[in-house]
Input
Amino acid sequence: MGTTPAATASRWLALAVLCAGQLMIILDQNIVNVALPAVQTDLGFTATNLVWIVNAYVIPFGGLLLLAGRLGDLLGRKQVFITGLTLFTVASLFCGLATGQEMLIVARFVQGVGGAITSAGILGMIVTLFTEPKETAKAIGAFSFASAGGGAIGPLVGGILTDSVDWSWIFYINIPIGIVVVALALRTLQTERGPGLGSSADFLGAVLVTAGLMLLVYTIVGIEKEGWASTHTLGYAALAVVLLVGFLIRESKAASPLLPLRLFRSSNVSGANLIQLLMIGAMFGFLYFGTLYLQRVLGYDPLQTGLGFIPVAVAIAGVSLGLSAKLITKFGARAVLITGLVLIGLGFVLFAQLPVDGTYLANFLPANLLLGVGFGAAMPALMMLGLSGATPEDSGVISGLFNTSQQIGGAVGLALLNTFATAESGANPTPAALTAGYNLAFTIAIGFIAAGLVLAVIMLKAAPAAQGAGQEGDAKTDTPAAPAVL
Output
């Protein structure tokens, strides 16, 4: 294409800016878990309400990703990226300043909105910046590393800040980073002019799906207090179903739907998203209850807890960025996914047997490593299968759908697991009662993974060879030419 060295350097600097934005968003999803007990003590959260510190961020993030990606197409991805990052940074300030539960939850919700707006268009910008196949692969690898890096250092950074200063600094740290990234984005990212909003953005669809999913999680969280058959539970559940059905009806009739329903005719798209809902729901439970077990049962401080999660994060990053591509090329994405799910399931079997007098090396670390290796293998394979049949005009929305199902699976799965765990532990739990609750949550997570395995066997098909773009697909494998998005 004949680009000058200066232009090449500018593109890689722009990539660094985009990856820094992605790192911020992923870091914030993982940094909070370690600080939850400290936040609970300072602001008086109950065990049931504590989950809303996580879900208040995840629900708007997941619900708005599809709309945010569409807004980037219509208004220009640079403008949307900077707007989202600015909103995220300002919301981080208010999270740190929070003196009550309501203020923190509202600020976390706004953070989630900013996170969705920031991250939705990053991959699209990267693909636009790097069109040569070899460069594209390197750029996607950098993006994947940023995502994995956020997961790896989140618990550790959260532990260091909570232990050495206080929990509010897990949010304050975003402010200087956000300011620098916004300033660099203004200078390095290419300005795009989209066609404008007009009537193309499906705002009604976004409102329906976000409201429906938020209400669904609220209903699940309230089951432990209100009961399964209470008027409260049944009424709000019915309203959530009405909103989500309304979203499906809207998408079937909208001229430019937020989520074209025809995509679900592909068993790979449908199956991969369902499996991801179950797998991510289980993994969110691992991070949440694993943190609480280390701190409340084994007596770890926040820094020790953060260090305790480093092995799983390193295993995920190492396998997903290095080994998984070779395994998928040799054995096929479907076989690698099934193997990864089996390893994750075995990890949860060990977690479901955690004793009240356990030790990190004997009881926690082996399961930690099984989940890390299994997830690192399963996630890239799952995304390759889900994206394998995508046409150029569908690849963006399918990628957005994967992001959405990931976030919603985490929120709904964690809410469900937390409901059963707190019900099992009781109102004034001892370490033994807490352990029993965590073990029940991990046992239910085994069921999530088992259901994912069944879906993988009956729904997923070998991905077809790549068609045209990029590299040549190998007809003997189910590996598509399109790069995996982590």
